[in-house]
Write a structure and sequence with these properties.
Helix content is 28%, strand content 22%. It is α/β, with parallel strands linked by helices. It has a single domain (8-177, 190-208), classed as Rossmann fold (3-Layer(aba) Sandwich). The strands form 3 sheets. Strands 3-2-1-6-9-10-11-12 form an 8-stranded mixed β-sheet. A two-stranded antiparallel ribbon has the order 4-5. The chain has a two-stranded antiparallel ribbon with strand order 7-8. A hairpin with a 2-residue loop joins strand 11 (188-193) and strand 12 (196-200). Helix 2 (28-45) packs across helix 5 (202-208). The longest helix has 18 residues, at 28-45. The chain is globular, with a radius of gyration of 16 Å.
């Protein structure tokens, strides 16, 4: 249903609160099972990441927990990085992470690497409060990832991660919004196309998601 979105900020604020509440209602068993499924899909669908420079986010408020995948990627030879907020109006700054890396509490009380080396990320595993049928994400409203994706040349592969219960018809995207290249939920891997999200097998995704060819399907 089409609606006047002059008030899109208010709509997103309300939708954000609704989806955070929905995510918080998930049982521990469901949460662990969905996390395991997403981790497996990311391993099998994106093998090129295992030798790349990959940015993750420390889990916050029952988001997908990437820490097992971060450890796996590190063991495979990837350079793993976490974001640091240096200024609320600038892109995220990524620092190297490894198991046992020195950490400190950063913005929003989220742990970040403590003055480790900077990393120029080639791919990002991006948590989402919600997502829509065209691959646009709903975050916490500060715009960090939109600014980061717009600032990096060439743009990194953007892989959004969330649970299926957080899907909505439309996020009413604005000019500054950047769609994900792929979205991964416990139900599978979706490629973002002009016609909407397309579910693809992990094997097909592995063939399509080589760095440098990420936008060939869009």
């Amino acid at each position: 249903m089409k609606k006047n979105m002059d008030n899109w900020r208010e709509w997103r604020k309300e939708k954000r609160a609704e989806l955070i509440k929905r995510r918080a209602s998930v049982t521990e068993e469901e949460y662990q099972g969905w996390n395991t499924a997403i981790t497996s899909l990311l391993k099998n669908g994106f093998p090129s990441l295992q030798k790349s420079m990959v940015g993750f986010c420390w889990p916050h408020r029952q988001e997908y927990d990437p820490r097992p995948l971060m450890g796996f990627m590190h063991e495979c030879g990837a350079t793993v990085a976490l974001p640091e907020v240096l200024n609320k109006h600038t892109p995220l700054f990524f620092r190297k992470w490894w198991p046992g890396a020195p950490m400190k509490i950063g913005a929003y009380d989220i742990p970040v690497p403590d003055n480790t080396d900077p990393v120029a990320v080639q791919a990002l595993i991006i948590p989402m409060i919600g997502f829509d049928e065209l691959g646009f994400r709903l975050g916490y409203g500060s715009g960090y990832f939109d600014r980061t994706l717009a600032a990096i040349t060439p743009p990194p592969l953007a892989i959004g991660v969330a649970f299926e219960i957080l899907r909505v018809d439309s996020m009413h995207p604005q000019p500054h919004d950047v769609a994900m290249d792929f979205i991964v939920t416990e139900a599978g891997i979706y490629r973002t196309t002009m016609d909407g999200l397309k579910l693809i097998p992990a094997e097909a995704c592995a063939a399509e998601s080589e760095l440098g060819n990420k936008r060939s399907s869009r």
